[in-house]
Amino acid sequence: MWTGPSHTFTDLFVASRMQFGYAYATDGTLVGGSVIYKNIAYYHATIWNGTAASALDLHPATGYTTSEIVGMIPGIQMGYVKRAGFGEEAALWRGTVESLHNLAPQGALSSKLYDSDGTHFVGYVRPPTGWASATIWWGEDAATTENIGLLVKDAVSTWAVGIENEANGDIVVAGNAIFDHGVQVTRGVVWRWSPLRHVKPEE
Fold it and tell me: CB of 49 within 8 A of CB of 29?
């Protein structure tokens, strides 16, 4: 972790507790990522509060093998949990193990959350057939998902990684799309939803 120039570097790894670790996101205070702890074979979602000793394992005690945090805003950590033999399942936390909330849509092969504006969430959902598609959750319920990847013409796969609210009320979502015209090419994509003008998001 850095809080400024190179000399502000803080090592968040604790050799006596951890085998491997990654930091993926911050909310400006906490840092989030995943750690393989000693005597454990899978990654556990973890948050730090400025020091290596502050590492807090957010992985649920039962039901899941793997968890990771890949996005954060103040008060909310986002990523996925995974069961043995199944794909990733979109999930969020609010700073404690007990706060884990699974937002995976029923029947999806995999899903993941990357960002939120505090009300809506973005990421991807992979259906039973086909590739992953950028998705917005209009609330903290798996039933509120909307596949916005379908708006990207000719894309074989899409995923959303950022969301912001503009002063005029528009919701802007950023992400990526893979196109395959003999050679696969990945391009940045922006979606915009204007509540005052449109019912659905538009590419």
Answer: yes
CA dist list (Å): 198 to 160, 176, 192: 20, 22, 10
Residues 62-106: pLDDT tens digits? Answer: 999 999 999 999 999 999 999 999 999 999 999 999 999 999 999
DSSP-derived secondary structure for 155-186: EEEEEEEEEEE-TTS-EEEEEEEEEESSSEEE
State how far the alpha carbon of 72 is from the alpha carbons of 28, 120, 130, 200, in Å: 9, 13, 28, 26
Q: What is the pLDDT of residues 96-140, one digit of tens each?
A: 999 999 999 999 999 999 999 999 999 999 999 999 999 999 999
The pTM score is 0.92
- Residue with tokens 């884990």, as numbered in its chain: 100
Residue pair 128/107 in contact (Cβ under 8 Å)? The answer is: yes
